[in-house]
Design a protein that fits this description.
Strand content: 25-35%
Distance between the termini: 29 Å
Strand order of the largest sheet: 1-5-4-3-2
Number of domains: 1
Low-confidence stretches: none
CATH topology: YaeB-like fold
Largest sheet: 5 strands, mixed
CATH superfamily: RelE-like
CATH architecture: 2-Layer Sandwich
Number of strands: 5
Radius of gyration: 14 Å
Helix content: 25-40%
Mean pLDDT: 92
Amino acid sequence: MGMQMLKIRAHPEVYEELEDSRIWYDEKATNLGVDFLKEVDNAIERIRESPESWAWYEKRFEVRKFLVHRFPYAVIYRYSENMIYILAVANLRRKPGYWKQRIRDMT
């Protein structure tokens, strides 16, 4: 494929979210936290392969979501030209939209 690899930028709070979730899952079962991180990595790779394929989450903000396999999470992201901005790896059972102020941080 002649396409260049899209760059990924994540909001700084995404790393804390991932770590908190990993710890929570590891307390539930051995290696479940590692499995969670692998599924998130897979999700980000799928987004990178075709960022425009996934459903709109907030169309007016040009925000899309990719549902993480096996876990009740979505990768919330924006895509422009050669960059994917990950706004959140959001637990779908948590209050929706808590990450919206991050849109301003990443424009």
